Amino acid sequence: MKSDLVGMKSDLVLELFISNEEKALNFFRCIRWSNGVYCPECGSYDVYKRGYVYNKRVRRYSCNECGNNFTDFSETIFANKHLPLGEMFYIILNQDKKSVNQLSKELGHKWESIDRLSKEFKEYLEKNTKDPVLSGKNRN
Question: Can you give the pTM of this predicted structure?
Answer without folding.
Answer: 0.73
